[in-house]
Amino acid sequence: MERIASDTRPEAMLECMMLIRAYEERLAAMQAAGQAAGTCTSVGQEASAVGVVRALGPDDRILTNHRSAGHLIARGADPGRILAEVMGKRDGYCKGKSGSLHVSVKELGVVLTSTIVGGELSLATGVGLSHALLGEQGIVACFFGDGAACEGIFHESLNLAAVWKLPILYVCENNQWQAYVHRKETMLGDRISEWAAKYGMEGLTVDGNDVEAVHAAATQAIASIRRTGKPFLLETYTYRLRGHYEPDDQSYVDPAELSAWRAKDPIDRLRAKLLTSGTLSETGLQQMRQRVAAAIEQAVAFAAASPFPDTAELTTDVYA
Amino acid sequence: MSEITVNEAVSQALAEEMRRDPRVVMFGEGVATKRRELVREFGEKRVRNTPLAEGIIAGTAVGAAATGLRPVVDLLFAPFLCFSMDEIVNSAGKLRYMSGGQFAFPLVAIAMTGGGWTVGAQHNHNVESWFVHSPGLKVVMPSTAADFKGLLKAAIRDDNPVLFFVDLALGFEPGEVPDGEHVVPLGKAATLRAGRDVTLISYAKTVNHCLQAADDLAKAGISAEVIDLRSLKPLDEKAILASARKTGRVLVVHEASRMCGVGAEVAAIVAEKAFDALKAPVLRLTGPDAPAPSSYVLEQAFIPQPGAIVEAVRKLVVPAFAA
Question: Which of A56, B60, B77, B142 has its CA 20 to 30 A from that of B253?
Fold first, then answer.
């Protein structure tokens, strides 16, 4: 039975970010050791995932993309079942048929993950239409990157959502990288949120490496959507600290830029703040680290023990 | 029975299914403009115009289908489907499987194609086999008013994404449609004419050309069976093989081009599973490997015509003619 996570205390959000980081770094290490398939990590972007997802309610739905581990774990997904999915095991959320790139968890409201960049933008309007027509309370959060924002479907999706007044929170995680190409090579300007106004939509950019700021901005945006029924574009300005797809030596990344963003690591920032303010003690932090480490060991053990699917599964789930 | 046109049959199916199931919605380019009767009965929320943007129209249908609605979208002309390939092929066709069966996508995408209106290759391109080749999708392409109605109703009730191709030339064709509830199951071919000597297998407007050819062949003493596939996926293999075994000679006729078309699949099925019953090789008569022309004369030459069907059958039935 899946349970939606909803703890928004800063220390809970810190622990969640640490869990996401530990999960992805462990997965990358397993990949390097030949124990798991390659994956797209969201290392450096944890504050965006946790800040937005923890601002959502139980009736809200999420559409995500190939960098989805943060969104899933922030929503309460079990890292063991995600890892089992990545490893192609039977107990993965999608029975091993998705792999790392398209994990969805219907019970948690994480629907329709598409790894075609922009795919989630094309589907979000339909989920929004269902919410609008079927009288559902929730809103729809759609996560995508600056790469997807440079696709035509971004324009089509925002335009239609604005015209039809669909309850969609568009979350552009502007991580500066579009696969192996820096954003500065593919678009002029710096802020994708500014494009929202052209669609008659509210837009806002927030420091995507400050989880409390992201959470506050998302809470405000979601309240606006619930009040007006209209979509909202929230841009979380952040950075992809690892490469596009593991393994990736990042030889194409400017070292100065990378180290400047490492200094703004969202986990380090919140940890330092909570320790300084006394919200978190060194002992408390130590216990947090132990819980995270234990959760990861448990996840790895679970995924390793899960059997591979029966080959009869090859042709099941094609048609309803 | 009532005689109505194909277009009227489509309208009846849409209205009946929207009345039956409040989850059925329809949107697309000009849907609310052209289907005022649906707007009047079901309201502007369920019957909507959209921007001329096939990607988001199809994507919206896919997202809506996964979360409780049963959308029908009008994408106008089949070549426009190129703008919705990601949504239809990568999302609608694959996300059920890729989610381990968590989601279903009950949606219908309607698109027109085929020669007759001299609209040229960017409005007329029989692309149905592209979708037959894609997993998770179903494909239908009817030829009679009754089947347009019955198959569209079945497509709307189906829990899978269905591509519903409308042959442009058939819109104003009249036909007898049963009164009351009329649903035609997906995946069932129809034998429109029984015969002994040769089987003509076709779908959409060339079914009518096969029927005309069968009339001419009868005058020459050749008895042709005519099968309308109606559904291209699932394909009614049983009906194909039964007729092939009965006549021993098969000609597949379609307007779409030859290579990797539906005819190639039909021929392969017959060769694999009824080879022992064949008295001659399976032949195909199809449109050429060329964009569909606009000029009426060229456009008609593109489409397999009754005379060409008769000639092809003569080759099959009288081997001496083959040289």
Answer: B77
How far is B247 from B235, CA to CA, in rounded Å?
20
The domain defined by B190-322 folds into Rossmann fold (3.40.50)
Alpha-carbon span B232 to B186, nearest angstrom? 9
Provide the token pair at B276: 């022992």
Residues B3-15, mean pLDDT to the nearest whole number = 97
Domain extent listing, chain B: 2-177, 190-322
User: Which residues of B carry out catalysis?
Assistant: 123
> What does the pLDDT look like over B261-292, one tens digit per residue?
999 999 999 999 999 999 999 999 999 999 99
Distances (CA, A) of A7 to A12, A14, A15, A50, B163: 6, 11, 10, 10, 44
Domains in chain A, number: 1
Q: Which of B68, B90, B102 sits opposite A106 (nearest CB)?
A: B102
Q: What does the pLDDT read at residue B322?
A: 43
Q: Which burial class, exposed, middle or buried, applies to B40 when counting CB atoms under 10 A from its CB (0-12, 13-18, 19+)?
A: exposed
Which amino acid, residue B131? F
Min CA distance, B265 vs chain A (Å)? 20
Stretch A267-296: mean pLDDT: 98
Contact assignment for A125 to B63 by CB distance below 8 Å:
yes
Query: What distance in Å separates the CA atoms of residue B60 and residue B105, rounded to the nearest whole number?
Result: 11
- Residue B320: per-residue pLDDT: 45
| Among B residues 253-312, those touching chain A with beta carbons less than 8 Å apart | none
Binning chain A into helix, strand and coil, the percentages to the nearest 5 are 50, 10, 40
CA pair distance B210, A272, nearest whole angstrom: 79
CATH of domain B2-177: 3.40.50.970
